[in-house]
Specification:
Order of helices and strands: HHHHHHHHHH
Number of helices: 10
Largest sheet: none
Mean pLDDT: 80
Strand content: under 5%
Shape: globular
Amino acid sequence: MLLLDLVVNLLLGLVLGTLGGLFGIGGGLIAIPALGVLFGLDQQLAQGTALVMVVPNVLLALWRYHQRNRIQWQHALALAVPSLVFALLGAAWAVTLDAERMRLAFVVFLLLLAAYNFSRLFSMPLQPATGMRHTWPWLSVLGSAAGLLGGLFGVGGAVLATPLLTTVFGTSQVVAQGLSLALAAPSTAVTLGTYAAHDHVNWLLGVPLALGGLLSISWGVKCAHALPERLLRGLFVGFMLLCAVLLALKL
């Protein structure tokens, strides 16, 4: 049975890694509801265990995105440094909260974010990206908010940063996803450390997920660069709705 569990977890990691590379979020957003629904983990334990997979996935996906579409590191640092600080605060707060209330808050957030992206997708034609409309200090404000969210919910903040970078800052979807990964890399690492220090990590479950993710995330990145812009954004909206539904099943 232990071998079967290992194989199942590895296969699940392959799926989550592909999705993480496709949407530039490291796979955590779908891993959290999957771990809650399939394995019965409470919200904090699901988030901490998902981070075992997310941290290496984010680093590998960041490298792959940078290879295909050079990341502007001055923009990445403006996002990542405040994200790191606020992720520490968010993670410290998260380990003290009621798990069911956290899950409900996360579901509501995902539904609102999906509705916002859906309305933007169909209310106006997509404009070609012309470069970053706003730089520092607005990138640092976004990094702070995304870091707090990432620390609180264990998703690295990319779920907030990606749509705002496209709609407010004017980047293309793949550029937004690459910058979101740069934002998420340090914050997910410190968030994992905080969750682990409070025993909110199942390492036996998380490590096989991480291995599967590392094997498949490059494929997701390749698909992201091959898909049309509108389709990729539409899939991102559908992805958030799916995650919200999966989490709602556990309420």
